[in-house]
Amino acid sequence: MPSKKPKYDLSQVKQIVEKFLAGDLTKLWFSARSRSVAQVMTILRCSEKEAEEKIAHAILRLEPADFSDSNFQWGITNDIYGLENYEDHNWYSKFNILNEDGLESVNQISFYPVEDFLLVANGRVLKVTYKPENLSDD
Description:
It is a single chain. This protein has 138 residues and is of the alpha+beta class. The protein has one domain. It has three helices and seven strands; from the N terminus they run αβααββββββ. Strands 1-5-4-3-2 form a five-stranded mixed sheet. It is globular and about 40 Å long.
């Protein structure tokens, strides 16, 4: 079971994401758009805007028990969460909070279906619910 604690306060993350959903598009940034938004578009058959909104709503559903781990990437610590059974799949989510000149935003680095398994804080193991070979080119 993961023993670390998240770097970022999840309630603060959610407050920032709520501002995005209320129309402030500067509050949620997708630094790996092709890995996150594009996969959600393909898997859930939705538009880019809908994919961004689905990811934002997924973040709002996260609870402390969904925390998995933190990692250090691109010079910043990121929190990793697993979301069980959202839109019929288990999801891996990795993000951080950026603070530039006093303006905070959530940097959503990764959001895609669990690819192997993911152990979360309360001991649950999130399993694969979606296989990439199900993707089609059309």
